[in-house]
Amino acid sequence: xxxxxxxxxxxxxxxxxxxxxxxxxxxxxxxxxxxxxxxxxxxxxxxxxxxxxxxxxxxxxxxxxxxxxxxxxxxxxxxxxxxxxxxxxxxxxxxxxxxxxxxxxxxxxxxxxxxxxxxxxxxxxxxxxxxxxxxxxxxxxxxxxxxxxxxxxxxxxxxxxxxxxxxxxxxxxxxxxxxxxxxxxxxxxxxxxxxxxxxxxxxxxxxxxxxxxxxxxxxxxxxxxxxxxxxxxxxxxxxxxxxxxxxxxxxxxxxxxxxxxxxxxxxxxxxxxxxxxxxxxxxxxxxxxxxxxxxxxxxxxxxxxxxxxxx
Amino acid sequence: xxxxxxxxxxxxxxxxxxxxxxxxxxxxxxxxxxxxxxxxxxxxxxxxxxxxxxxxxxxxxxxxxxxxxxxxxxxxxxxxxxxxxxxxxxxxxxxxxxxxxxxxxxxxxxxxxxxxxxxxxxxxxxxxxxxxxxxxxxxxxxxxxxxxxxxxxxxxxxxxxxxxxxxxxxxxxxxxxxxxxxxxxxxxxxxxxxxxxxxxxxxxxxxxxxxxxxxxxxxxxxxxxxxxxxxxxxxxxxxxxxxxxxxxxxxxxxxxxxxxxxxxxxxxxxxxxxxxxxxxxxxxxxxxxxxxxxxxxxxxxxx
Lengths: 311, 303
Known about the structure:
- The structure holds two protein chains of two kinds.
- Chain A is mainly α.
- Chain A is 76% helix and 0% strand.
- Helix content of chain B is 31%, strand content 22%.
- Chain B has helices spanning 66-74, 107-111, 120-130, 146-158, 176-193, 204-210, 239-251, 269-277, 280-283, 291-294, and strands at 8-10, 26-37, 40-51, 55-59, 81-88, 92-95, 164-168, 196-201, 213-218, 221-227.
- The longest helix of chain B is centred in the middle third of the chain and has 18 residues, at 176-193.
């Protein structure tokens, strides 16, 4: 019945649509044999392009060890300039001078002690800041009461420059290790809190609806939707926090410290040892790079579902 | 539900799975359902019974309140002012216009969101196979085409064996050809599982081809209640459906030029134009065809 009715109308319509012949042909392909659809349409499209490919706008494949190319180039220039005598060795010693100083400091035992002290300070400050940042963000991101209690306070804390708290913290906690760790923890927790909180509270409303429709409990909603959805934001905060722990360290270790990289550099300044200062900077740089890369590696594993320009 | 001024009663009947539905007990019952946003009344005392196991389409202009009605039945309108009584089954699934797959869960895990039990994984796989996505269980959602994502969303709604399936313009974001395939799939799934279906759409052709009953929401009430009494699978070119079409368009306040079938300035552009351009014989086989057969050739707009 319906087929008889349709065949009578098809004739005039296809004739009228002669200008649209390509479209009609495509549609007929799909109807006659669905298998032909993919190949049929692609062969119809390709010749029009005449084999030329469009310029891709994605960045393409990553170069091998790409992150090391820039630093390597920098050191090569530095070495070349030193060898050519273009740099004042008192202001900027040659790379090999810095390396031999590093070897000397390492073998006489001061450098390992300083590095270890700095790592401990940065590590415990970071651990504390991470814990506090995550805990506070969960409290204020997952409940309105928590938000009312926590968020305003943290925003206030954020507005105060953390290094400005140093005098107060010295009076409160003494001038030992505790205040240094506390300051680093504050430097670390703020970016972690801010990013995780905004990711948690900015959960897509459509997913909230979905969870309601699928009958998820509040706990499962948080565990299966809110937290996985907030992970990208968390990693942004984590990377800022890791960098922050090293930044705080340089300043803090120049205040009443008897060891640590910052202390070593501060002493070197008094004696005009630029090579020792550069050793300190080099180690800071390497630590910063390594810790940031570690976070990146974890991030890429955890967020493997994301396909971005970086993938 | 805290701010609801209505009593929301759940009937909690067992699902009429696999059996012919009884026409006696309605799956959904609305009486005097009123909803308003900021003082603007969107639903103005809707009375409606949806018999169990029926596929009903709800048409209306954008802003006519059809989504508001669906969301009320789904229990998703927590902060909307309103009154009236509403009863709906316990097991309700919703398919949204966007597939709403969680990008951080693989397709199978998305299908199983909120589903528990020892055989959950098996049921999830079966549901994916039913929508023609067997073998894609481990894919990430952003590896799927638009049509595939919407199939996965259908599987997610089916795996819960709903008594009532609410679909809010589920094919609205798909291209015209994919949409026609999805029509066939939805109809087939409905025939196999027989849930009550409320399909909200702005597409008159979609409503006529799929539904046994088409409602038009106008001025906050059901303005037209039309039973479409034509056998399935239906052709988009069936001239008798054209009469239904004209009645529905008239109820929607759209007058159509009768001399040809090109889309007049209707609120329902794409499928009308497709059915006008393509020979009907090319379109009908997809409607009602088993999903498994077309699945391997489902190229669509896969990235």
